[in-house]
Amino acid sequence: MPTSPSAPKPGFDRVNAYIAFGVFVISFIVYAMTVQRTFSFWDCGEFIACSAILGIPHPPGTPLFIILGRIFSVIPFVEDISHRINYISVIGSALTAMFSYLLTVRLVGYFFGEKRHESLNRYIAYIGGIAGAFFVAFSDTNWANSVEAEVYGLALAMSVAIVWFTVRYFEQRGTDAATISMMMAVYLATLGIAVHMSVFLVLPVCAIFFVLKRSASARDWAILCGFFVVELLMILLFSSGGGGASLFYVISAILAVALVLLLYKQIRWGILIALVSIGSVMMSFTVYGEVLPVAVAGLVILGLIGKKYNVNVNWKGGLLLVLVAFIGLSVHFFI
């Protein structure tokens, strides 16, 4: 994506907001009508029991889900405690449907370019968004996870919201609203680890949008996206273990150096350092704890260098990302 899509026209789209709310309500009603009235088999009973006593379920512990489950368990809107905790998935999946609608409307609108705000094209986007949202809401696997106390419904809601905030950031780059969208995406990605670790896997793709400057060309986008594709292919190629791991690290290091040499002028270095340090949590919290102070020190030094040579290196934004991510991860102190 070499250029930013046409920015939305000023003003709040009330029709779009009303439809999004309607998608949420319809999905919520259907899930509420089909939700389990007690606990289900497999992990659900464990999650419900641990939520009721603020305990710790099987690793990695899902602390955010447990805390939310405890809150739901003490609100007497239905008699059975299991029934109450199951509503976490009801609400979470209804939010998934709503964000799926909002995301689809934005993506469909790109096909119309500058004409996206014309009445007919807007309604085509609305209809496409409704269809996409309900395909997600009532697909077999998603619906099954939406009516019981499992982590997947809430995890998917957070994942779709991260993508929506990323698209919103891309449309509004260079504004305060864009910065807020980036912070929200990173916050949800780190907070989501406390629900299911798959939520964080959305962030590396979104990081491509956050790292490149607005002035990046089509060539720059192609190079960076190509690097990620090659990395994924190598992961598949060398995943069998053995000596392949060492070769993977060597090739990755060479490609990373080449990437820096090609794109160093288009990279927001403060944001990149912050995201790399945040991503270390996927290796372990121990590694994250070791990398975090190094990243903070590196950002401060980068800021001093940038100030000396009058170069904008986004070090303040990087520090803010690190802080937001730490707040998101702090829920693990519960464990």
List keywords for this structure.
mainly alpha, 335 residues, globular
Radius of gyration (CA) equals: 22 Å
Shape: globular
End-to-end CA span: 41 Å
What can be said about the biggest beta sheet? none
Number of strands: 0
State the helical fraction. 55-70%
Beta-strand residue percentage:
under 5%
Q: Which spans of ≥5 residues are poorly predicted at pLDDT below 50?
A: none
Mean pLDDT: 90
Class from helix and strand fractions: mainly alpha
What is the H/E order? Answer: HHHHHHHHHHHHHH
The total count of helices amounts to 14
Can you describe this structure?
- The structure is a single chain.
- This protein is mainly α.
- It has 14 helices and no strands.
- α8 (176-192) packs parallel to α14 (315-329), α9 runs antiparallel to α12 (269-279) and α13 packs antiparallel against α14 (315-329).
- The model has no long low-confidence stretch (mean pLDDT 90).
How is this fold's topology laid out?
Layout: H1 14-34, H2 44-53, H3 63-73, H4 81-110, H5 119-137, H6 140-145, H7 152-171, H8 176-192, H9 203-211, H10 218-238, H11 244-263, H12 269-279, H13 285-308, H14 315-329
Helix pairs in contact: 1-4, 1-5, 2-3, 2-4, 3-4, 4-5, 4-7, 7-8, 7-9, 8-14, 9-12, 10-11, 12-13, 12-14, 13-14
Summarize the structure.
The chain is mostly helical. It is built from 14 helices and no strands.
